[in-house]
Amino acid sequence: MHIADGKVLVWCTIPVLHVTIFRGVYSTRSPRHHLQRVYSTRSPHYHLQRGVQYPLSTLPSSEGRDDLESFQLEISGFLKEMACPYSVLISGDIKDRLTKKDDCLKLLLFLSTELQALQILQKKKQKNSQLDKNSEICQEVQAVCDALGVPKSDTSDIPLLLSQVESKVKDILSKVQKNHVGKPLLKVDLSSEQAEKLERINDALCCEYECRRRMLMKRLDVTVQSFGWSDRAKAKTDNIARIYQPKRYALSPKTTVTLAHLLAAREDLSKIIRTSSGISREKTACAINKVSFLSAFVVVKSVNAF
Question: What pLDDT, on a 0 to 100 scale, did the predictor assign at position 21?
Answer without folding.
Answer: 52
